[in-house]
Specification:
Layout: H1 2-11, H2 13-32, H3 38-61, H4 64-70, H5 75-106, H6 113-141, H7 143-167, H8 173-190
Length: 191
């Protein structure tokens, strides 16, 4: 199973490098104060949501399914390895966001560090939720159709999330409203 997780990570190494470069650029913009620090958390969520789609596309292009069936590893372990890889990427993104949040707090760009960390945790849970919904669709319909389903679902779900965020008043809601407003911009930039 560790070999399958390593395979997924090796497939993503170039993509992860480009996403890391984008993260450094967005973190630099957040350090300068041009954009809110919440954009870093939103960017990491978008990255983690897009990575499994890329893995499935590369696997389809390389005809991995045919090769994977010849291995002594069953389908159940192959699927479990993919879910574990996605979970590890989600945990890594939340940890990286927390580290960047501490750095932004030290630089004076984050006023409420607890609120930022809670917001990043919510973003991490959102990425786990979106991946939990998308992975079965990726297995069932393939990367092209599942990607279109994701775009349709996301574009129809965002207005309702914004409405809920605008109706509720709380200490954490301004941060979530900013994240909900920034999420589509970062999503478009990552494609």
């Amino acid at each position: 199973m560790t070999g399958l997780i390593l395979k997924d990570l090796l497939i993503l190494r170039k993509t992860l490098r480009s996403y890391l470069f984008m993260l450094i650029v967005y973190a630099g913009i957040a350090f300068t104060g041009v954009w809110s620090a919440d954009i870093v958390g939103v960017l990491l969520v978008v990255m983690v949501v897009m990575l499994p789609m890329n893995v499935f596309a590369y696997d389809k292009q390389a005809k991995w399914d045919t090769y994977g069936l010849a291995l002594p590893v069953g389908r159940t372990k192959t699927v479990a390895a993919r879910y574990l890889c996605v979970l590890l990427l989600c945990l890594l993104s939340v940890g990286l966001t927390a580290i960047l949040g501490v750095m932004l707090y030290a630089a004076g760009r984050v006023e409420e560090p607890v609120e930022f960390l809670v917001s990043c945790s919510v973003m991490g849970l959102m990425s786990v939720l979106v991946n939990a919904i998308m992975l079965p669709f990726l297995y069932k319909f393939g990367p092209e159709r599942a990607r279109m389903m994701f775009f349709t679902t996301f574009s129809s779900g965002r207005p309702s999330f914004s409405y809920i965020a605008s109706r509720n008043a709380g200490s954490m809601m301004p941060s979530i409203k900013k994240s909900a407003a920034v999420f589509p911009k970062v999503f478009r930039a990552s494609r």
